[in-house]
Design a protein that fits this description.
single chain, mainly alpha
Length: about 80
């Protein structure tokens, strides 16, 4: 699905396309619609950058056991290289 946002809307909001994607990702994460990983992929920033964006907005990072286990799997895969 594609969404087209006109330049005049971006100018009125005083946002770049990248900033708008980040704002949408933050909103969807906050509402529980996206996980941390999904939101960082959507906004095209690293997880650390996305976590910093959340922190700067006072949004808690819901880092549960499932996220921890997923991160451990990624680390294990990287160690195998």
């Amino acid at each position: 699905m594609s969404v087209v946002i006109s330049d005049d809307i971006l100018e009125a909001a005083r946002l770049t396309p990248a900033e708008l994607k980040l704002e949408i990702a933050v909103l969807l994460f906050r509402k529980g619609g996206l996980t941390l990983a999904q939101a960082s992929r959507f906004s095209e920033v690293s997880r650390i950058e996305f976590q910093c964006a959340l922190t700067s907005r006072g949004i808690p990072i819901n880092y549960g056991i499932s996220e921890f286990e997923a991160d451990l799997k990624v680390l294990d895969q990287q160690e195998q290289w």
